[in-house]
Amino acid sequence: MFNEDIEIAKKARLNAHSPYGKYFVGACLRCKDGSVYMGCNIENHGIQSICAERTAFVKAISEGKKEFESIAVVGAPMGEEPSTKCLPCGYCRQFMSEFIDEDFKFILEDNGEIVTYSLDDLLPNRFDF
Ligand code: ZN
């Protein structure tokens, strides 16, 4: 399933809109009911851009999803294939922490190897109340 989600993320990445940073990111968010939501980064010249991870979460939450299992993320400069792990930015880590628990997995690919992280791995001592 991890490999499948990486492939879906790579497909989502092709839809990225990144004329400024020229860095294309794709995400595959898997819900606990088995449904998946794709996301890509969408830049904008006038207002704040949105990352692939938040795109996927916003799509899923707006469709009524509340329980999430994992997110696969891939990224690379435009015209290159993803090969090293693309870690979520700090903004996305805090955003996602609102909706996930400790069992949630971040799935990344690094030189052909699947690596996973937990929320505590990526955002220890986070803001919470
Ligand atoms: Zn981000």
What does this structure look like?
With 129 residues, this protein is of the alpha+beta class. It is 27% helix and 27% strand. It has 4 helices and 5 strands. A 5-stranded mixed sheet has the order 2-1-3-4-5. Strand 4 (105-110) and strand 5 (113-117) form a beta hairpin. The longest helix is centred in the first third of the chain and has 12 residues, at 2-13. 33% of the residues are buried. The mean pLDDT is 96. The structure holds zinc ion (ZN). Zinc ion is lined by residues 51, 53, 88-89, 91-92.
Separation of termini? 33 Å
Low-confidence runs (pLDDT<50, min 5 residues)? none
CATH superfamily: Cytidine Deaminase, domain 2
Small-molecule binders: zinc ion
Query: What would you report as the Rg, rounded to the nearest angstrom?
Result: 14 Å
CATH class, named: Alpha Beta
The major beta sheet can be summarized as: 5 strands, mixed
Summarize the helix and strand pattern as letters.
Answer: HEEHEHEEH
Number of helices in the DSSP assignment: 4
Oligomeric state of this protein? single chain
| Strand ordering within the main sheet | 2-1-3-4-5
Fold-level CATH name: Cytidine Deaminase, domain 2
Strand content: 25-35%
Q: Supply the helix-strand structural class.
A: alpha+beta
Round the mean pLDDT to the nearest integer and report it. Answer: 96
Helix content: 25-40%
Corresponding CATH architecture: 3-Layer(aba) Sandwich
Number of strands: 5
Q: What global shape is seen? A: globular
- How many discrete structural domains? 1
